[in-house]
Amino acid sequence: MSSVISISKLAKHYEVPEREAGLKAAAMGLIKRRYKTVKAVDGISFEIQPGEVVGFLGPNGAGKTTTLKMLSGLLHPTSGSSSVLGFEPAKRSHDFLRQITLVMGNRNQLSWDLPALDSFDLQRAIYSIPVDEFKRTRDEFIELLELKELIQKPIRNLSLGERMKMEIVGALLHKPKILFLDEPTLGLDVTMQKRIRTFVAEYNKRYGATVLLTSHYMADVEALCKRVVVIHHGKLLFDGDLSTLVEKFSAFKTVGFTINTAAVDWTQYGEVVSTDGGRMVLRVPKEKTSAITTRLLNDLAVEDLTVETAPIEDVIESVFAVKEETME
Amino acid sequence: MHGLRLAFNYLRIGVLNEFQYRANFYIQILQTFIALGTGLIGLNLVFSQTTQLGGWSKPELLAVMGVFITMGGVIRSAIQPNMERLMEEIREGKLDFALTKPADAQLLVSVREFRFWQLVDVITGIVVMGVALSELHWVIGAWSVLGFFTAIAMGAVMIYCFWLIITTTAFWFVRVHEIANLFEGLYAAGRWPIDIYPNWLRIGLTFLVPVAFAVTVPAEALTGRLTFQTWFGALALTAVLFTLARTIWKIGLRSYSGASA
Amino acid sequence: MKRYFDYYRATMKLSVLEQLQYPVANYFYMIGMIAEPVIYMVVWSAVARQQGGMVGGYTPGAFAAYYIVWTLVRNMNIVFTPYGWEWRIREGQLSMSLLRPIHPLHADVAYFAGWKVVVILLWLPLAFILSLIFKPELNPTLLQGVVFFFAIWMAYLIRTMILSLLGMVTFWTTRVSALFELYFAAELILSGRLVPLSLMPEWVQKLAWFFPFRWAFGFPIEALVGNLSTSDLLTGLGMQLAWILFGVISVSVIWKVAIRRFSAVGG
């Protein structure tokens, strides 16, 4: 099957004026401007098949959003090529735009003062959706996300999570084949995050849509994506199964707790990450986590024990470090 | 006096700040130039059709324009920025500092902001007044000069009080921001001496929005038609407005901090 | 074609519903705006009385009519400002509208068109009150009324085109307030906003023919208030149409260039 999203050596460079501190530099700056090239995206390539749900991971500033913007036609690449559903995104043909959607966490499309229902009708008109089909889709989504009580309330009266659900419904009413989701769960509480994930998964199942999802929440990716693409400093670092990534690189968990005693040999429990007053953080191998926490609780008077997966930044850093070793 | 020293400090910081934005200076010059240009065009259009308006000759109306521009500069440099900031802080509930600093809150909120470049308008207005006076052959007596300066001061105080009263209602009403737009429109009426306006409008302008006192009265002083009654009326109105403003401010502040209003 | 009708209808419905939620804000704005023409009206009426009842062919009653109709035309004139374009690009709202399979400018035109409907409704009582106070002389014929109706909507489109062009300048530079201020000043003088154009010196009136401003402001007013001949009225509508066409072409061309730049630089 031919891929539905295909990019080849895609790059986006910005010329940024360089500015140094100091009077002399400012004066020089008036005469001759020095420019620095910022490589937001530095030659990435991948292919995505129809129906895939791909996680696009990386810390802030890695180039994820820039890539999404290039794939949706908002930005013109500096070099390289991309093809989405056979279209060149930069051309922004209406047929292309009708089949995609880009959802960014904090950008609102729905009318603030009016109930979502009114805004949905406008979406129908924008995308020229036949009325019957529109109603069916709309009602289906409303049911899936349990929004029946809320659709008559003005958007401004909804909580952040409820608003996000409405935005997503609005973004999908035209049943796009390609979903670009940029941090869709940003700022939401855990329950809401789960709801949205379930909805996206369901949409993908029912309509066979292709989803490209960026996040720096590991949980989003774990729930939805079999395949992940890791990007850092504009470069592709990893493209493969999520399970491989997790296995290789988040082999550790961090255990944090508060304790009064100072004189303890921590190496028997794990590697010390930080000590801050009475707060200790240890890194322990994932498979030994429950054993070690049990020992900690038994042996010592620890309080406020927490167990966390290594944050994505750590995972990425270790991916990056390993990559250097394997020389790719 | 602590209050004055505080005010001076704010002024100094404000000025230093503004010097950083030299572009604002050029933009201000352009805006003043354009406003002056359109004002003069308007004036000339009127006087292409007549030789006097409401008993005022062309140079006399030019003097009115000068006062209008200067007073506008005073309002936009010292009064309006403070009131707009106050409005916003009331709306966002950020006024707590006013209750905790060891200085009078009203003084504090009234002097914090200063748009230095608006002084270009003040200077421009003075130049226009100068031109007008020279066309009137500088027929102006010592009393008129005194009357002029006191009238300008009183006018500024009255506009300040008016602004403060409106802004203070932000403690109770939310939509006070549109008042700024409204004021701009009403103040524009000050470009012409209130003698030309129909009676009902004249009264509205004098009492509701002290435009007349801000602009027409000083202009009357410059052109030698200021009467003692008018001057005294201005003094009385200033006193009344000041007391009223301070009282309403105090009530507003109390209700803000949760005390029984 | 049908889908554009559908889109305009849906957008206008939305903007009407939205704006009906803010009658107070709209009224405040309108009242603030009324000060300007009232001042002009009062000044010129005073001049007219001074000169024996008429100046430049206008009596105080005629001035009242001119400036009251002015308020409606001014309201119809209000469109998305160049400053708004600046804000929109900066806040990323433009990107959102670029994702839709419909030219973003349709959104502006449609939204404001709906708003105008609300504005016209809110304006009527205001006009009534102003008429009671200032007693305008107004006896339009049916033809004048019809021409006026079309003229105000075409004025709206003309000004939309002009200010969109100005707004697009912000794609290239943000330091544009100087340009805008100069533009607004020129518009003030050459459009019939400050005074009826017939009161301007000859050379200004001739100059005004080269600019679209009077077709967005003075002409609609004169159509209703003045005594233009039928041929003048129809010529006027023709001129408006021509300026709209010119505007649409210019905007399309500049837009393509602007978007290319926007997509290169991002937002």
What would you say this structure looks like, in words?
The complex is a heterotrimer of chains A (328), B (261) and C (267). With 328 residues, chain A is of the alpha/beta class. Chain A has helices spanning 23-31, 64-71, 94-97, 116-126, 131-144, 160-172, 190-207, 218-224, 242-249, 289-299, 312-326, and strands spanning 5-18, 34-48, 53-57, 79-84, 100-104, 178-182, 210-215, 227-232, 235-241, 252-258, 271-276, 279-285, 303-309. Chain A has 2 domains: 5-247, Rossmann fold (3-Layer(aba) Sandwich), CATH 3.40.50.300; 251-309, Alpha-Beta Plaits, CATH 3.30.70. Chain A is built from 11 helices and 13 strands. In chain A, β8 (227-232) and β9 form a beta hairpin. The two termini of chain A are 28 Å apart. Chain B has one domain. A two-stranded antiparallel ribbon of chain B has the order 1-2. In chain B, α2 (22-47) packs across α3, α3 (58-91) runs parallel beside α7 (142-168) and α7 runs antiparallel to α10 (211-222). Chain C is mainly alpha-helical. Chain C has 12 helices and no strands. The B-C interface holds B 23, 26-27, 30-31, 34, 37-38, 41-42, 45-46, 48-50, 52-54, 175, 178-179, 181-182, 184-186, 188-189, 191-192, 196-198, 201 and C 24-25, 28-29, 31-36, 38-39, 42-44, 46-47, 50-51, 55-56, 175, 177-178, 181-182, 185, 188-189, 194-195, 199-201.
The helix/strand order of chain A is: EHEEHEHEHHHEHEHEEHEEEHEH
Largest interface: B-C, 34 and 34 residues
Helix content of chain C: over 70%
Our Rg estimate of chain A from Cα atoms comes to: 24 Å
Beta-strand percentage of chain C?
under 5%
Measured between the Cα atoms of the first and last residue of chain A, the distance is: 28 Å
The largest beta-sheet of chain A arranges its strands as: 5-6-7-3-8-9
> In oligomeric terms, what are we looking at?
heterotrimer
**What's the CATH architecture of the largest domain in chain A?**
3-Layer(aba) Sandwich
Number of domains of chain C: 1
Please tell me the overall pLDDT of chain A: 84
Largest sheet, strands/sense/barrel of chain C: none
What number of structural domains do the residues of chain A give? 2
Low-confidence stretches of chain A: 323-328
Structural class of chain A: alpha/beta
Main pleated-sheet profile of chain A: 6 strands, mixed
